[in-house]
Amino acid sequence: MEECTQEYIKNIRARHNGNWMCGLCEEAVKDEMVRSERLIDKEEAMTHHMNFCRKSTSPDPPLSLAIDLIEAMRRFIWRGLDSPRPSML
């Protein structure tokens, strides 16, 4: 594990156009550049990754509703699996 010295922070920011980025995000940006259908530079890949992170962390009502519906269906199905079968009666 690296220590967060001023020199380390300076090097990280220099590698990422002045932005602070953890190792996991750095790998995600590299992956974004490789997976893109067209050639994109590091800055555009960082923008894509930041947009993805914003969408992932902000609660979106349609997503919340979808998750609630999925959870309700899961409970319904499991409850049905726990019920005795007609042949068992």
TrEMBL record:
Superkingdom of origin: Eukaryota
A Pfam match: DUF1677
Protein name as annotated: Uncharacterized protein
Organism from which the protein derives: Helianthus annuus
